[in-house]
Structures
1.
Amino acid sequence: MRIKAQVAMVMHLDKCIGCHTCSVTCKNTWTNRPGMEYVWYNNVETRPGPGYPKEWENTDRYKGGWTLRNGKLHLRAGGPVSKLANIFYNPNMATIDDFYEPWTYDFEHLHKAPKKENLPVARPKSMITGKFIDKPEWGSNWDDDLAGGSEIVPMDPNVQKLQEHIAMEYEKTFMMYLPRICEHCLNPSCVASCPSGALYKRDEDGIVLVDQEACRGWRFCMNGCPYHKVYYNWNTHKAEKCNFCYPRTEAGLPTVCSETCVGRIRYIGVVLYDADRVKEAASVEDPKDLYEAQLSVFLDPNDPEVIEKAREAGINESWIKSAQDSPIYKMAMKWKIALPLHPEYRTLPMVWYVPPLSPIMNHITNEQDLSMDGYIPAVDDMRIPMEYLASLLSADDTSVIRRVLLKMAAMRVHMRAKTVGGMDEMKTSKLLQEAGTTMEELEDMARLLGVAKYNERFVIPTGRREMDDNLHYRQGACSIEGLAPAEGMVTYPYERSDLG
Amino acid sequence: MGFFWWGVFPYIVGTILVVASVYRFVIRGTSWHAPSTEIFEKKWLRIGSLLFHWGILFAFIGHVMGVLIPIEFYESIGVTDHLYHIGAIAGGGIAGLMVVIGLIILLIRKFSNPRVKVHASFADYFTVIWLIVVAGLGTYMTLVYNTTVVAYEYRVTIGPWFRSLFTLQPEYELMTAVPLLFQLHVLSSFILFAAIPFTQLIHMFSFPGRYPARAPQQYRARDGYKNSRP
Ligand code: HEM
Ligand code: SF4
Ligand code: SF4
């Protein structure tokens, strides 16, 4: 047993309002620099839709993640030898058009324009070429709230898989938001894809980072990540990615996206896992078994033996305590209501999603008479097809999704019964049975999902940096000093000043 | 004059190459990378970059065979001069054409694609244009001079001179009688060598050959954090 600690996140999709605050605050913190304008470490997609970059889930095209060949894990895009043979040109890499050509507006013109009959306008201007773009045609959220309609939705690889034709008429269509960051995977294919060994997983908290001094810009990580969450900075010619706001988490603070989340959908906590079991779990034959296999690598933080072993592995008391109070452990491992995104990529992603409930398709005729058990068929009749959620969150296993939705529905029914009556009926209901839960568990769930305060949602031990040398120097220092241009307004096209 | 160009100049170039590369690696390590513009354009890059790089790889092997390996070696294994030159002209000719055509495609792409163009610096243009000069001279020598004038036996002049540089006893007289075309090819390539540390050409020193031998997953613990750079 090789115990390691991992900081992980849960996003409760039922509560995401698709406001993009998370994306904007993240961008203002990390990617508002030349070379990174097209980059959103955090982005919120409206699904169904192609996402960002377009069709990132199309593994035939980008060849991200792992596949199983003869029972062994292989990088889908090819192993080290084939990568070196393809080093002069990466056939599977996305280009800027798969993301979008970032633009700003010519605001200058608004106060410099001479007096004229018509109001001056600020024309869109490319942040790559500095030229005016007469008609922007795609952006990171071009299809927000299904804005692309029936033209864009079919580009979603999950939709293409659906057996049934999905309806696009206003009354029948469905929609959900999917906020995404780097998954800080337990078996990251980005790390394995890097010829220079520049990507690595931090031993102490599992955060996956790019060493800016070791990166040589070979770009295999970009499409090696099946979630497309490593980006190429065209200005510095190096890869950059979400760093889980480690300067904040080390201080015990949540990531910027979580801190500012308007819907309060995000939870952060520590989980303990056995690093020796990761490879085995990622290599199970049937993709539908991957979810259970992934769950099996986590260790119970209250088990005395685990605590003992964790101490031996050098994990300190505050981390063990945090693992015991972890909201992630509760939602993903104990209650099993948070699911990994695309477990079939075999990277063991560490951002978990509680699938959203959605309105029931057919009218319930007699609502007063609706018994508690009447909610059981309701989950099968929700607008968001279960197959769609299963394609995102459980490698097409609808029974996993159904169980979670039943639990979520049971929680609502129970909480309503508490205020308007019906607790006796609830106790004996088939709903409770079929959802495989108890009333105590439902109450705990309701508390964490509905009313939990800041310090229940974010249980983050500090990184114990106080023993480091040079703390005074590090205070306010920039980790990419020398790479990033000086702060202030940048004019476009941005001209590099460094060597070469 | 001959002494300067063939006995002193190569050492000046060697010194610049080593000192400036070390300086850049140590002081400006973050500027050490491959010059990829694939994110802006990939259709033409595919043809240009693949032709150029595979061509230059073959050309490099050809130079090892022609310049580093002494003529006596070929004689001892029974390769006649005639046979050698047929091989060298055919192999070198193909490699040279791949390099030159690849470079021309890359150059056209550089100034015709607006996205690539705005982000190409003087050094980027210089590299590609100067490589065309060096490789163009080399390909012309191989394909035209060798077949129309004489199959020049550089293995008894340029080869021994180049090897003598490494023993610090440059036999510069060997170079004075070499045809001008060949002299220009050698001098222009030395200028290119001197330019390497000031351009993105430094990426050629970073070929990640150790990749197949390392563990797929990389962990770094904070203790070893500072000195665990690969
Ligand atoms: C050690 C092996 C080498 C590797 C792995 C390598 C790799 C690369 C890569 C990945 C690119 C970027 C292509 C792109 O995506 O835009 C590139 C560009 C380039 N390489 Fe290499 N290279 C190597 C050797 C060389 C050598 C020996 C030379 C020249 C003597 C060279 C000259 C160039 C030039 C001029 C470019 C820029 C092309 C452009 O301007 O579009 N490379 N190389
Ligand atoms: S999600 Fe993050 S950790 Fe996982 S493969 Fe992609 S970049 Fe790497
Ligand atoms: S800030 Fe929160 S609610 Fe708003 S889009 Fe982001 S995840 Fe959703």
2.
Amino acid sequence: MNYDVIIIGSGLSGLAAGIRLAMFEKKVLIVEKHVEVGGLNSFYTRKHRTFDVGLHAMTNYTPKGVRTSPLGKLLKQLRFKHEEFRLCPQEMSEIRFPDKSIRFTNEFEFMEQEIAEQFPSQIDGFQKLLTHIREFNELDLDDSQKISSREVLESCLTDPVLIDMLYCPIMYYGNAAEGDMDFYQFVIMFKSLFMEGFAKPIGGMPYILKLLVDKYQSLGGELRMGAGVQSIAHKDGELQSLQLENGETLVADKVISSAGIVETLRLCRPKIVAESDLEIGQMSFIESIFVLDRMPKEVGYDKSIVFYSTEPRFKYRVPKGLTDVTSGVLCCPANFQYPEAPPEGIIRVTNQANFRLWDAMARSDYRAAKKEYRERGVNALLTYFPDFSDHIIYIDSFTPKTIFKYTGHLNGAVYGSPTKIKSGRTPVKNLFICGTDQGFLGIIGATLSGISMANLHILQAEAKSEYGRI
Amino acid sequence: MTRDQVRQAILNIISDIAPDEDLGAIKDEEKLRDQFDLDSMDFLDIVMELRKRFNLEVPEKDYQELVSMASSVEYLFPRLKDDELVS
Ligand SMILES: Cc1cc2nc3c(=O)[nH]c(=O)nc-3n(C[C@H](O)[C@H](O)[C@H](O)COP(=O)(O)OP(=O)(O)OC[C@H]3O[C@@H](n4cnc5c(N)ncnc54)[C@H](O)[C@@H]3O)c2cc1C
């Protein structure tokens, strides 16, 4: 069997690339190691409840009619109506630090106002930063230019607390590196969080994934589950074939991999030496999901998402211990503008965690540690918020180890490698990457990445060169 | 195909690539780019759909002919007029 394109991975980027290719009558196959689609943004079932893995909020929300935003472009490229995503906007979110709070909604002016009130001395600097952000072309696929976002922020703002408050949500929602990030990545995240906004689909990720899989299959795309790629054979710098874990060999003209850049190069046979230049991502998280016997608002939780730090200075780095509970993300999925209230109240709490330490634990210690750090995480929340412990009816937690197990991302690194390959090219001809390590993160970002890599490297061959830019 | 059928065929393509748009109000003389914020990716989708549906190649130098509905019909009609439309 000879395919035009084989895609490794059925996460959002792989599914999106698949839809684009199937739409233009390419013979395309997606091979997925796991038994569920979705990758980092999948779902799982425990005791009759279905939980989203990676969904706090879809970033990049823009309402129907905004055609030039990432969401608008994504809908057009995949040919969905806005209504089909069934997106319900957030109510209000917050960045909470000792003595300071910046609230924000999907109306950016509201946040500007908050900053003017909380940081009157910084508002001119903030406007200057906005000018930099607005004028920057973050979607250029040329990788050569590297600009430190910290340098840009420090050239505009003099209050380190405001800098940390802006970084807290942006890093939690999309930084693969510790401490600093590339300015283009900062701009993508800033726009997607603050200038666009948050929403959640009715039905959560299972609904969105089904929409994508149905479209892909109705266009003739093939999907094979439980089909892990064991190796990618290449010769004279050119792609030859794929070997699956079950021993089968598959042949395609081109392969697009969403497994991650280092992960993909590790599959290559013969081995590829360039691998050593690439950094493996380190940033991973622990997340606990608390199902309550009432809605979060009834126990004093009225925000959609809160990004918090209990220390005046925010740190984003692999913790020295198992987990750092001094900062985190608190998500109340019910606090979105749903037409009907969800059946149960849920609170989710995410903290930074150390993959190596979690991974090295013996099974019995691992369980006990999950419980301990869950409790420590909740205790830290009590700095700002009421106790909800008496209302918990079900708890589940996942760690960096879980993330690695189900997505294959080394170190459970949710945002992949700090080295992004915007062009999507690899040292092997006809082998490309898409998704997290191509530099577009999150649900909408990963989806756009799949679209733009399919456009650039496959459909463009029949069209012109500016294709593939979003 | 008649001129009307060619126009309808283009409308069908645009309604597929931009499902959120109300095409009832389309102004034939006005630029599609301005009316619907179509970008270069959308124009390539139009070109690829023409290939898929009518086996018609639009070379890159002719992309400008697709700027409005009127100019698209002008450009495509002579190339499609001998094709018979079956539904
Ligand atoms: C806890 C958590 C919370 C998050 N919250 C949000 C949020 O609120 N909002 C948001 O926008 N984003 C969020 N994200 C991020 C978002 O989920 C990801 O950025 C996005 O899903 C990445 O998609 P992807 O296609 O690049 O990669 P992946 O989803 O990782 O897809 C890669 C796929 O490849 C498969 N694969 C790997 N190796 C092989 C192999 N050898 N053979 C076959 N298949 C293979 C994997 O199983 C996986 O399915 C969150 C992520 C996590 C983990």
